[in-house]
User: Fold this.
Amino acid sequence: MDKKVGVGLIGAGFIGSIHADSFKKINHADILAVMSPPPGEAQKFAEKHQIPRHFTGLDDMLALEEIDMVIIGVPNHLHCEICVKAAEAGKHVVVEKPLCVNLQEADRMIEACKKAGVKLMYAEELCFTPKYVRMKGLLDEGALGTPILFKQSEKHDGPHAPHFWDVELSGGGVTMDMGCHAFQFFRWLNGNNPVKSVYAQMSTTVHTDKTMGDDNGIIILEFENGVTAIAEESWTKPGGMDDRAEIHGSEGVAYADVLQGNSIQTYSKKGVGYAVEKAGSTVGWSYTMYEENWNYGFPQEMEHFVDCVLHDREPLVTGEDGKAALEIIFAAYESAGTGKKVMLPFQTAAARPYDLWKRRNS
Amino acid sequence: MDKKVGVGLIGAGFIGSIHADSFKKINHADILAVMSPPPGEAQKFAEKHQIPRHFTGLDDMLALEEIDMVIIGVPNHLHCEICVKAAEAGKHVVVEKPLCVNLQEADRMIEACKKAGVKLMYAEELCFTPKYVRMKGLLDEGALGTPILFKQSEKHDGPHAPHFWDVELSGGGVTMDMGCHAFQFFRWLNGNNPVKSVYAQMSTTVHTDKTMGDDNGIIILEFENGVTAIAEESWTKPGGMDDRAEIHGSEGVAYADVLQGNSIQTYSKKGVGYAVEKAGSTVGWSYTMYEENWNYGFPQEMEHFVDCVLHDREPLVTGEDGKAALEIIFAAYESAGTGKKVMLPFQTAAARPYDLWKRRNS
Amino acid sequence: MDKKVGVGLIGAGFIGSIHADSFKKINHADILAVMSPPPGEAQKFAEKHQIPRHFTGLDDMLALEEIDMVIIGVPNHLHCEICVKAAEAGKHVVVEKPLCVNLQEADRMIEACKKAGVKLMYAEELCFTPKYVRMKGLLDEGALGTPILFKQSEKHDGPHAPHFWDVELSGGGVTMDMGCHAFQFFRWLNGNNPVKSVYAQMSTTVHTDKTMGDDNGIIILEFENGVTAIAEESWTKPGGMDDRAEIHGSEGVAYADVLQGNSIQTYSKKGVGYAVEKAGSTVGWSYTMYEENWNYGFPQEMEHFVDCVLHDREPLVTGEDGKAALEIIFAAYESAGTGKKVMLPFQTAAARPYDLWKRRNS
Amino acid sequence: MDKKVGVGLIGAGFIGSIHADSFKKINHADILAVMSPPPGEAQKFAEKHQIPRHFTGLDDMLALEEIDMVIIGVPNHLHCEICVKAAEAGKHVVVEKPLCVNLQEADRMIEACKKAGVKLMYAEELCFTPKYVRMKGLLDEGALGTPILFKQSEKHDGPHAPHFWDVELSGGGVTMDMGCHAFQFFRWLNGNNPVKSVYAQMSTTVHTDKTMGDDNGIIILEFENGVTAIAEESWTKPGGMDDRAEIHGSEGVAYADVLQGNSIQTYSKKGVGYAVEKAGSTVGWSYTMYEENWNYGFPQEMEHFVDCVLHDREPLVTGEDGKAALEIIFAAYESAGTGKKVMLPFQTAAARPYDLWKRRNS
Assistant:
């Protein structure tokens, strides 16, 4: 019988819950501990998800020998520091998106893991979303011909946690928070063919009262092999989270809608207990989803990372991919700040992507 | 660590493949053997699905002590005999739909299992289909008010295996083969409230050359609590399998489409390798599904049955449910033969449902 | 230049408004007068729709020589009397559905018009609904093969005017009020091939407090040429009017959704001024329709009737069609009352369809 | 009785047929003549559409006193010359999109019409498309809040007539041919608020063998009032023409799909006679449209122009709008050629938009 991978969760927020839920079905791994600094938070999380141990201090959790792999689900500005510590403690690392807040941090994370001989795995779940996996399959089998255009959009009416709205912590607005999904998704669809250029149009519209960051973004990528990709991101769309993608090729098209497209069309005079992430009021018509975590591919993603650790395999999505996505993010903010398409590779010592948009003189 | 449930598959056809695939993800069970009489068939199946042992004789497989539970996926007319043998061998039994071909067989199967102290579990996967489970949840939480009308339809252009088309073996046509899904689905939605009456309209239209059985059926059920249900079944619908349901209540409605509704809308000049069950040609537009088995609930259903065996729990769907569905099927064929609504309970010694439609004088 | 047809509207209610609106685009006809008994009602209507003359008395309007054709849009129980008077006054007659309340009245109306040498035209707009006309075209051109199954459903949460809820006046509930649409629609789709039998399941569910009539009905028709048709009618469906149909043939299928299927999918925090007939609250998600009258075919229908009068042509939908639809309605209520399929032709002296369902002993 | 407007069609191609069909329902206008140079072409068109007179020479048709208004539906490079002649002959002018091939021509056309005291009306039918008119209505009534993002896309697999593919004649590729629709559509949605900047990404992908022009284009507009708009244009999308738009606002969203969204979902083993413009093969699944001209708003658009001539009203869409759309087109090609967002107003003496993309050194 295979050894089981011991997992430690770092962070006890929204994404941590999704990870905890994902591991329930995974045979070859167990979540052994969760860590979060605020007093009582890790304990409450551990009770809720039946995790044996909980910690307020990271070092204490990293000291557990039985933990082989940690999953970092904390605010962006803490990713680097925690990743380096975990690597130094000999743990394999899964980092939630975006990888971190700047390219120097990205290099430090990649280097630390390489030096420690542990894997750095980047948690972009769209590469595991079953509907998107099938759609990529259509492209790969030649059913759509040569790819011409990719589209992906993710829209809802804004994240809950305050750190997202503070560009000092997050590094940027919606393009940072959700554009990273699209960028890695497009790289994956296109067989990792290099991105040639990035153009972005960003704006702060509805949420001017709570953030300086972009709450709407449109980003166009050009790939070396001729493919164009359009990403649309929004923190201002009411009515429930929306995630859809398209592939247009020389011989066909494929349209995939992950949430609304899979929903139970519902009318309810009193409203539904839970319809979908960020649904808001469900009185009247709504789109009731089910098994959102499975439909997004979170359990499948975690199963893959566990398998990589167990059998020493190369992850589908690595720290290098995370850095590539971050480079595109920086180029996007640069483009938004200059009104020009930005060519890749794009090097910058900017502390955060947002600075290239709005703090060009500092 | 929990003991693992040892499973034996009886039958190596289409549904057997679905079951084999479903068990790959199940922790607490292993398929230890497969049995099918035609020489070489079980062996080929075992190789394909990596099942350790294969048999052409049922008794040989039933002799294995390590087998706790068998899954019967064979032509209808063989269900009873095999179930009784398996029960006598002390194995828990899962029977694919329909339970068997007549009510006397149903009683024998239920009795044999009761006597042997083994579970008789009826494999109606619609009670595990994630989208339908969520839809039932909407009803149960009160979001739709008091139920008024249920609808469910399953349509494709006809099964492959010859036994389906021979009413002597199958017992009936599409109403027997697919109506059973709808009937148990409606009973489950309605909290097992009793069915009061059954009316059916059947016809043989396109497939008059290959069967005497009905290839189209419309069945109306009335429940004691006032709910009406319409089932539509067809073996003559081209363009890919179609499975959808609706709940209409006093305070809301819910519409769920399991296959086309979850699909990737695809256009392909050359066609797609595999779009969906019974898609036919996929040149041009088609509806590409993914993870059909999961979306239908087959792994979830098998996981439940394994859990019932492991922990001695009552299955969600039992042999009694299978018999109730069969009773409704008989009443449907009686109704089609008389042009009248048939009240339940309906007792008949007819050898097969079809006889009540077309052999009323014998 | 062609003479213009002079039109008189009888009735100033909801359907009268739709007719008035329809005539705005019709070249060869003018609405010259409107008549409605309640004091002030016809005048208000005339002002709103810019109709030159208004009357409270029918005879006064029928006395106008310049009126060639009248359109009867009044409660069912008044159709016959008004039709006979109009025919006797030498006016061509358009009668809104259902034709009248019993078969004797139907015969009187047909006879009166024949004797007077005027046309009796039955206003079933589904025969002019552009989307349904195109769908029939698919069938007629052979794209779907031999027809097997027709489906049509019309559902909303109940009519406004009180007379609909009083079976003494209306003759029946939703099967009378909306089933007539489906029945003539099916006859038209099937090239007027005769209906062989009728089966119906009716219930009064949500509106038991306001009516004795059926508020939900499911009716199955069998045609001589083997086609089956399912009509679903409901006065209890919230969320806006819904009208959809399907044709299943030996070689294809066609699905048409007239309202929701053509809508602008809308989310509005404050709600929409007008989304669709009977939408109810439009806060949150709703389905905003546009040009409902044109999309339903009302102007096209009226244009056709005007053309028939102008050029002495046979109308697409006649009083005989209206009587045939009414016969099916009577058979449906008989079936609901007996639990048996009712064969056609069906003769009855019942004063109203409802009586065959619930007053079988009187 | 109102005078009737006498109309002359210039051009006997695809768009000419749509116009001829549109006038059948218009009361206050008659098409009196059609003109097209190739011998026999105008005559054949006149016979087909029952137009009394036909010409091969423009001057001959312009000499008819009874013609009040001409409609120019000819290759782009001929628009200016014909417009000026028609104005000099005292005829009101309707010009199909795009207005002409460069800004100097646009000025000449506007000047000629002003000097002659005739109207210059720009035929952008999307401003009359019923579904889009209703969607604009949702925005205007405040149901969606403050506008944030507009989207519109028009895609098919390429026009038939050779002149479209020759940039010397057309002026550009798909962005010229179909982007003009989106640009005027966005201006109209936004209450003619000025466009601030234009960014475009263009490529020639599938049709490199037949054109130097762009066969795919993505254009982002920024408006002075903060709205962003994305236009997607394609000449490489198989499966039938596709036209859809979205409005995202601070308080709501609206999604409208004009063709596929209104279609009859059809499966046909043999194929459908006609499904929709550029459907290609209709064997298998397809989307059957109906009344395309009405659904696009062509008759409504022509009715409006006739009304403007009859009653001396200002058209909804003028030559100035056509010039504004053309200015955006030029800015788009400039942007594609430089990789930068281009600010408006944008002045250029370029002979055609294409030159700013690919002939930057000439």
Observations:
- The longest strand of chain C covers residues 147-155.
